[in-house]
Amino acid sequence: MKRTVYLLSILLVILIGTYLQYCYCCKSDVEQEEILINYENKSLATFSVEAGDFKVESDDNFDFDKSSYKIRKPVSASVKESIEQLRRYLVEDVNRVLKIRGYYAAFEENTSIFPNLGLARANAVKNYLRGEGINKKQLRVDDSQLTESLPDSVTIIKGATAFELDLEDENALLERIKSLRIFGEELQEEPIHLYFKTGEAHIHLSVKEREQIRKISEYLTQVDEAKLLIVGHTDNTGNREMNIKLSKERADFVKDYFIKNDFSTDAIETRGVGPDKPIATNNTEEGRAKNRRVTLVLK
Residue ranges of the OmpA-like domain (predicted)? Predict the structure, then answer.
């Protein structure tokens, strides 16, 4: 009798546990679905571009996971078809530029190297469009923070980009290039120095550095044959040959970090110079710490 009661008790516990798990899982699925449906603002959730008599539109758009700048795959066939029509239009009208505006919500964490997720998302879309054959010099990026209130439980940001075709005359383009070249010269005089511990997953950047990186991205897009040179440095402790190798590895790590943030591989060069170009004395720990760095310059 006791054994029967014992077995029935175990069975009851299992049944209750199974029921509670079912209720919890189903509730979570419904809540997530409702969040996604309620967020689908048609002005953002559709890929739409128009200028004069030209118009392309898709019911889909580029979507992103919460706090991510990586485009969710796969991109729909209708968006790809719209992009192909847009590409042909831009080939015919070289004075047109496509402005890509990336959106982000206040509750999202910016894990990119850009000033905010909006710019990071716009940059990701820009590089996707380049891969689809659109001339990079006809692409511009911008950002905007969503003003509507969204629940923190949102897991997918649907349609986080908007598009606008605009005219840019030759004088405006020349002024843009001139401004970028001045920035490149300033970076030659005062390179960006990055400091991080070997093995860190992220590089911690200041507000100023993030803004400079945004300009670097624009420079690489707009200036002919532009390159980002990433140079690794060490202090003079230990073997010089090993320091050269270590400095190159650190430069390559930064290159990989930029590529993960949708920078083009062929626009980046790396070099390791070991202890050969110190910016401080190697006679103190503070000086040696300053010399262990990676610098960014434009070519």
Answer: 183-299
The pTM of the full predicted model, rounded to 2 decimals, is 0.82
Asked if residue 131 and residue 89 are part of one domain, the reply reads yes
Amino acid 80: pLDDT: 98
- Give the residue-averaged pLDDT of 131-150: 88
Task: List, as one string, the DSSP characters of 157-208.
Answer: ETT-EEEEEEE--HHHHHHHHHHHHHHHHHHHHS-EEE---TT-SS----HH
As a whole number of Å, the CA-based R_g of the chain is: 25
Backbone angles phi, psi at 141, to 5 degrees: -125, 150
Is 58 within a domain?
yes
- Residue 291 in any domain: the answer is yes
Q: Say if residues 127 and 149 touch (Cβ distance below 8 Å).
A: no
Q: Is 296 exposed, middle or buried (0-12, 13-18, 19+ CB in 10 A)?
A: buried
CATH number for the domain that contains residue 256: 3.30.1330.60
Whether 158 and 183 share a structural domain = no
295 with 247: CB under 8 angstroms?
no
Cβ distance 265 to 224 under 8 Å? no
Q: How far apart are CA 18 and CA 12, in angstroms?
A: 10
192-194 and 294-298 beta bridge pairing: antiparallel
82 in the same domain as 131 = yes
Helices and strands (H, E) in the chain, number of each type: 8, 11
DSSP 8-state secondary structure symbol assigned to residue 71: B
Range of the domain at 157: 42-168
Regarding whether 180 and 287 lie in a shared domain, the answer is yes
Judge if 132 and 183 occupy the same domain: no
Q: Which of 146, 168, 190 is the last residue of a domain?
A: 168
Query: What domain count does the chain have?
Result: 2
Q: How far apart are CA 257 and CA 251, in angstroms?
A: 10
The mean pLDDT value of the chain amounts to: 86
